[in-house]
Amino acid sequence: MNRKPKILVVGSFVMDLIVSTEKFPGSGETVLGKSFRTAPGGKGANQAVQAARLGADVTMVGKVGGDSFGRELIASAQAAGIHTQHILQDPDNPSAIGNILLEVAEGQKSKNRIIVVSGANMAITPDDVAFVRDIVSEFDMVMLQLEIPMQINELVAQYAFEKGVPVMLNSAPSAPLSAALLSHLTYISPNEHEAADLTGIPIRKEGKSVNRDDLDAVIASLRGKGVQNVIITLGSAGAVVAGDSGIDFSPCVDVVEVKDPTAAGDSFVGAFCTAVCAGLNQRQALDFANYTATITVSQMGAQPSLPHLADVIELMQREQFDGFDLGLLDILK
């Protein structure tokens, strides 16, 4: 490949309303918070912004409300260099919001609880995405998530599959998936809890050690449903990718203070897809994605925390990473 990778993201926009507190309130309890702020988010938009900041040529398809949050969400995508001509504004539904509660206790890793009100995200119709069938062959990959109607994901995955374009589904938030959708996926990327929901097989962990039998069983189950490659993020135990060429592990890059884990998974997925489309193999892409997500959790907010390519390369150099020649990333510069 002698050009930047082209990625099509079909997914969600969410304005995050973020409250930090030293202690999550219990039922019926009121606590005083430490801070409040807003930040553009949504799994689809986050992954699109991350891919764009890492050097991919990204086009986003989605829907926001005809309100101030919608205008801010589109502006954030444009600021990242994303092509936004296919983002619709819906006068009948509000932009989605995410109520994010962060527990920030001294000496402990931050924890989060999130409630999403879907708004315009769930108003996307088949007619809104029908044009994708005609343009999908222009792209190196299609990225999907589960914050828009399942019917839309199934249609777009089918359009891409018919044209031989790889499809990544970040299967979050957790939901049942049809056999047809699974058979159209090149990659699926659940976390350990979502993987258990999809297969009925919990993955036992102890610290950074993962039960290999559980992991093998989950991978075999998902690949048996027709998915070509399975990526599972395992928190402090790192991440794994499995396909026809075998299984590759990448350890957690535990070199920063975790301040906000909100967009870590989106950062990981956006980085992995960008790296694969740029020509890196799956193990190299896994390492690159782990370093990218590490920077994300060290900063506050969803999209504000997503790093640029230079930030990731700087961290990899600082940690003396030698898993692959960083010159492979030059195509993204």
TrEMBL record:
Keyword Nuclease carried by entry: no
Modes of activity regulation: Activated by a monovalent cation that binds near, but not in, the active site. The most likely occupant of the site in vivo is potassium. Ion binding induces a conformational change that may alter substrate affinity.
Chain positions recorded as substrate binding sites: V14, M15, D16, G42, K43, G44, A45, N46, E147, D266
Domain spans labelled Carbohydrate kinase PfkB: 5-308
Cofactor note: Requires a divalent cation, most likely magnesium in vivo, as an electrophilic catalyst to aid phosphoryl group transfer. It is the chelate of the metal and the nucleotide that is the actual substrate.
Binding residues annotated for ATP, in chain numbering: N191, T233, L234, G235, S236, A237, G238, G265, D266, N290
GO cellular component: cytosol
Pfam family, one: PfkB
Main location: cytoplasm
EC number of this enzyme: 2.7.1.15
Pathway: Carbohydrate metabolism; D-ribose degradation; D-ribose 5-phosphate from beta-D-ribopyranose: step 2/2
Catalysed transformations (reactions): D-ribose + ATP = D-ribose 5-phosphate + ADP + H(+)
GO molecular function, one term: ribokinase activity
Described function: Catalyzes the phosphorylation of ribose at O-5 in a reaction requiring ATP and magnesium. The resulting D-ribose-5-phosphate can then be used either for sythesis of nucleotides, histidine, and tryptophan, or as a component of the pentose phosphate pathway.
Protein name: Ribokinase
The organism's taxonomic lineage, starting at the top: Bacteria, Bacillati, Bacillota, Clostridia, Eubacteriales
